[in-house]
Amino acid sequence: MNTINGLPIHPLLVHVVVVLVPLTALMAIIGVCWPAARARLGILTPLVALAALISVPLTTTAGESLEERVGPNPAIEHHAGFGEQVIYWVGPLFALAVLWWAVHDERVMATIHTRIPASAKLSQRVTALVLGVALIVVAVGSLYIVYRTGDSGSRAAWS
Question: Which of 147, 149, 109, 151 is nearest to 131 (CA)?
Fold first, then answer.
């Protein structure tokens, strides 16, 4: 279903991506940099990231359908090129958000620590540091690609 009452659904779905991806990125960055916020956000960041991850392919598919209806246009092709890259940032953003939550959730870590011998345990601090840096990098990259995609889409629509 790529239309609602004959109107393309892509512009509607774009707003979901434009809200959820930056929201996820900001929640992730805040969770990494501010421990009190991380504790309050808890599982919410991975859940919002999951919603963002689900919305991206829906939006891309609807955009491809709209692109076929509109016909060849260099500005739309430029926008579509950026749009195809969004999933490559949001997928890792979701995965890292889940890992970040798991490393800081006492119940998850208690379960992991009971199943791993003490000699094989990695330092939780080192793991958290590496995950935190990776999460911030991917969050910033996600913000950038969503900005570039939205900017090129608005230019294609309004020029």
Answer: 109
